[in-house]
Specification:
With 453 residues, this protein is mainly α. Helix content is 72%, strand content 0%. Among the domains are: 1-103, no CATH class; 402-453, no CATH class. The longest helix is centred in the N-terminal third of the chain and has 17 residues, at 36-52. The radius of gyration is 30 Å and the shape is flat. The relative contact order is 0.03. PPR repeats lie at residues 140-174, 175-209, 210-244, 280-314, 315-349, 350-384, 385-419. Pfam families: PPR, PPR_2.
Length: 453
């Protein structure tokens, strides 16, 4: 049954209840009965009923919805309603299941399990899980990994372990993702002994660990300020044949950065490069982002230079982290060097990389260079987006370059970006202040024409 039929009947049923938005929706459906708008109108209106109606079952019965009810529409309604009102969404699913023509799938139940867990409605969660087992539907490991994490966030470690142990009874395999979820819960609550036992159990069961398995424990040790214990753990796991998919030192640097131990991470990274051991790009990017956020741009630049000379190949994420930070620190020449290095590496620069350099040039009073670089951006086939135009206009206004700001406003409108009123007002006020009244008037006329007045 099409979604248009559902919304028409929603219009009939809800018209009695006085929702003002329904007539427009129904009229749209009559014009476009198979459009996406009709479908999502049905999802929106039904999910609103599910979330807000106290007498939900009675209202649904009065709507005389089509039978069989569309399975995909039911899933979208549950997903839309469950985050805010998981119990109401569960009532909606129960109402659907009472109809002989509706056959629920595992997706319908999975859309409810996680919202119930986040709302700490664990009794309802296990009731649904039992229903799934009763009708032979599989339980997904990803869903129960999230449920275990929800128990951990509620400081219910014993219950999280119980969920883990109960999964085989529900036919849900204990995958690496499930083990990682329980490891995270145990480490977050300081139960390292239990985490080690769980790792040994992984070995016995033949479940292969991944990077998240090792980084969870290493991050926990580093957060506790125990770098030696983290290193000893990695060595112990290596002796047992449990080698991480990335080098242990990279995991240690990641753990120190996430724990906020930036000085220790810097010292460890320096020691690695001096010994000729390069961090992988993901680890370097994480460290560089932490350094730039802390204002230690000089060290980040020196570390990048040293690591690049030893063979590190930066990716586009490296330049995305480093270039804006270097430009913001006023090191314009270094920002240009990084920009052209990115081009030589074959990366296509996106507007925010250009914007960082243009803004730094304007702040330094080098407007001619900023305008030239902006022209190069367009001639090289990299069209500016709205934020770049707005930033350039604002910097021109701050620097007293009101005529140039007006020109870029016109260019912005021609590119299809309508400037907002505050941007126009700043330019017009500046033009009047410097005696350019005719140009200010033309800017006002441009604003009116762009706004359709």
């Amino acid at each position: 049954m099409s979604a248009s039929v559902v919304v028409r009947r929603l219009g009939i049923g809800l018209g009695v209840r006085g929702l003002a938005t329904l007539p427009d929706a129904v009229q749209t459906l009559e014009q476009h009965p198979t459009s996406k708008d009709a479908y999502f109108a049905a999802v929106h209106h039904l999910s609103t009923i599910v979330r807000r109606d106290f007498y939900l079952e009675r209202t649904l019965n009065r709507l005389h919805l089509p039978s069989p009810f569309p399975s995909d529409l039911a899933l979208r309604v549950i997903r839309a309603a469950a985050p805010a009102e998981p119990l109401h969404a569960a009532r909606f699913l129960a109402w659907l299941r009472a109809k002989p023509s509706f056959s629920p799938s595992a997706d319908h139940f999975d859309a409810l399990l996680l919202p119930l867990a986040r709302a700490r409605l664990f009794s309802h969660l296990w009731s649904l899980a039992s229903d799934m087992r009763g009708i032979g539907l599989p339980l997904l490991p990803s869903t129960f990994s999230a449920v275990i994490s929800s128990y951990g966030h509620s400081r219910l470690t014993d219950q999280a372990v119980e969920v883990f142990n109960r999964l085989p009874r529900f036919g849900c395999p204990q995958t690496t993702q499930v083990y990682n979820a329980l490891l995270d819960v145990l480490c977050a609550n300081g139960n390292f002994a239990g985490a080690y036992k769980l790792l040994r159990r992984m070995a016995r069961k033949g479940v292969a660990p991944d990077r998240a398995t090792f980084s969870t424990l290493v991050d926990a040790w580093c957060a506790a300020g125990k770098l030696r214990e983290a290193q000893a753990f990695l060595d112990d796991m290596a002796e047992r044949g449990f080698r991480p998919p990335v080098r242990g030192r990279d995991l240690l640097v990641d753990g120190l950065v996430r724990a906020g131990s930036l000085e220790e991470a810097k010292a460890f990274a320096l020691r690695m490069t001096k010994e000729g051991i390069l961090p992988d790009v993901a680890t370097f990017n994480l460290l560089a982002e932490a350094l730039c956020s802390a204002g230690d741009v000089e060290f980040a630049v020196a570390l990048l230079s040293d690591a690049s000379s030893r063979g590190l190949c930066p990716d586009i994420s490296t330049y995305k982290v480093m270039l804006p930070a270097v430009a913001k620190a006023g090191r314009i020449d270094e920002a240009f060097r990084l920009f052209y290095a990115a081009l030589e590496d074959g990366h296509r620069p996106f507007p925010s990389l250009y914007a960082a350099i243009i803004k730094a040039l304007c702040k330094a009073g080098r407007f001619a260079d900023a305008f030239a670089f902006f022209s190069d951006m367009k001639s090289n086939g990299h069209p500016p987006n709205r934020p770049v135009y707005v930033m350039l206009v604002k910097m021109c206004v701050r620097g007293g370059r009101f005529v140039e700001a007006a020109n870029y406003l016109v260019e912005m409108g021609e590119a299809g970006f309508t400037p907002r009123a505050p941007t126009f007002n700043a330019v017009v006020d500046g033009l009047r202040h410097c005696g350019k009244h005719d140009l200010a008037q033309r800017m006002e006329q441009l604003e009116m024409s762009l706004n359709g007045n």
